[in-house]
Amino acid sequence: MADVSLTDLLRSLDDDAAAELERAHQAAADEADRLTREAAAEADRVRSAALAAAEQTGRREAARIVAAARTEAAAEVRAARAEALRAVRERGEQRLADLRAHPGYDEVLAGCLAEALAVLPEPVGVRVDRRDADRVRRLLPGTQPADLTITADLTAWGGCLVADDRGRYVDDTLETRLATAWPAQRAATATRWARAAAGAPEDRP
């Protein structure tokens, strides 16, 4: 597999979101069509039965039935989108959990180290998953203090946590990176879905 960066992985969720959107929209559209057809049939029946005695009452009841069906259909669409987002998030988590086995992981880990060390100019310790201890020793810049400790006590998909002697730390584990990036990713995906539902042209970078 080609080298892969964390940024590329996060961006790849867009493709998954598009596939999930197509599936979710098709399922929601089918259910909405069914609900609308049933509501229309029921509305026709109510109108026919009520016309002779109370036409106006029948129209109000028919409108209520159709409105309720539309509300239910909209709820189906919202539920389908929520499920699609959940599936995208789970797929992203699985990809990050598997990232350590990919050739590009060293580059990702080195980036996490560099980012965390840049925030804390006087680090005293680096905490990593035990599977990354040797990698971190190899990847640490030679400019770091010789007494910088490496503690392999994390259980993480990857990345690191760097601390200084004042109790400050930078959590640059992959779990935290995804948790930080996900709200914006979710909002952007939801916006694209809303635009697609409204018939607006897709606007992707």
From TrEMBL:
GO terms for cellular component: proton-transporting two-sector ATPase complex, catalytic domain. The keyword Ion transport applies. Keywords: Ion transport, Transport. InterPro entries: ATPase_E_C, ATPase_V1_Esu. Gene3D superfamilies: ATP synthase, E subunit, C-terminal, F1F0 ATP synthase subunit B, membrane domain. Pfam families: vATP-synt_E (PF01991). One of its GO terms (molecular function) is proton-transporting ATPase activity, rotational mechanism. Belongs to the V-ATPase E subunit family. This is Vacuolar-type H+-ATPase subunit E/Vma4. It comes from Modestobacter marinus.
